[in-house]
Amino acid sequence: MKLSVLGCSGGIGSGRHTTCLKVDDDVLIDAGTGITTLDFDQLLAIDHIFLTHAHLDHVLGLPLLLDSMGDMRESPLTVHALPEVLEVLSTHLFNWRLWPDFRMIPSAEAPWLRFSPLAFGDAFELGGRTFRALPVNHGVPACAFHLATAAGSLVFSGDTTRSEAFVAALNAIADLRHLIVDTSFENALAGVARASGHHWPDSLAEELRALRVRPEVWITHLKPGNEAAIMNDLHAVAPAWALKALQQGQLIEI
């Protein structure tokens, strides 16, 4: 399995794109502005998108993807997410006011888009890869994703702050090789992080101390302009983990 980082920033700006991870050639996890780094043929190859939650920086590429190539697809694009997330998309995005409902285009019998509800703990197997939703804490319905292969596992937290349930889920994955986890603000902005449902260095360090597994840890969703301060704080409070910032264009292989 190859995971390509198309976008991993907590905002936009020169060289920065919001969250979008590509798994092999056919799957996306989230659909932020990173999706715009794909060329036409790469976009056309995407058959499944797993969404951690419905915030705009994680879904805004989805309607544009369908608008760009829906008519060229031989089967619907399938979006997998918690039922509450799919409800937000139905009510506020694909509602004929903000954007057309591609579940009805060109017809309900042959649409360009299909929703597939995914409950916590459900496992969706796809070509030797298993995708499973894990609990997190973001203040809105949200999940992490556990990607499992015969060679090992990777977990992407999506957006989250402290969560005992998430730590327990991680500790149950004996073959966890990589953890990509949100830390959006430095310690000086802990109040902002807490209010918006994101980690700050001290909160992440506390969760790392509770881990019994020892994956390689990559930090994602750093806010633009705050990256150095966040990483400096992380290295100070969790020196044993050799934490690294996830990079746009990075490839992680399992």
Provide the descriptors you would attach to this structure in a database record.
25% helix, Metallo-beta-lactamase, Chain A, seven-stranded mixed sheet, alpha/beta, globular, 8 helices, 254 residues
Q: Determine and state the CATH class.
A: Alpha Beta
CATH topology: Metallo-beta-lactamase, Chain A
In terms of quaternary structure, what is this?
single chain
Note the overall shape: globular
Give average pLDDT, whole number: 97
Count of domains? 1
What topology does this entry show?
Elements (H helix, E strand, L loop, with lengths): L1 E6 L12 E4 L3 E3 L10 H5 L3 E3 L5 H4 L1 H9 L7 E5 L1 H10 L20 E5 L5 E4 L2 E7 L7 E7 L2 E5 L7 H8 L4 E7 L7 H7 L4 H9 L6 E5 L6 H11 L6 E2 L5 E3 L1
Parallel strand pairs: 3-4, 4-5, 5-6, 10-11, 11-12, 12-13
Antiparallel strand pairs: 1-2, 1-14, 2-3, 7-8, 8-9, 9-10
Polypeptide structure, described:
The protein has 254 residues and is an alpha/beta fold. It has one domain: Metallo-beta-lactamase, Chain A, CATH 3.60.15. 25% of the residues lie in helices and 26% in strands. It is built from 8 helices and 14 strands. The chain has helices at residues 40-44, 56-59, 61-69, 83-92, 164-171, 190-196, 201-209, 227-237; strands spanning 2-7, 20-23, 27-29, 48-50, 77-81, 113-117, 123-126, 129-135, 143-149, 152-156, 176-182, 216-220, 244-245, 251-253. It has a 7-stranded mixed sheet with strand order 6-5-4-3-2-1-14. Helix 7 packs parallel to helix 8. 44% of the residues are buried. The mean pLDDT is 97.
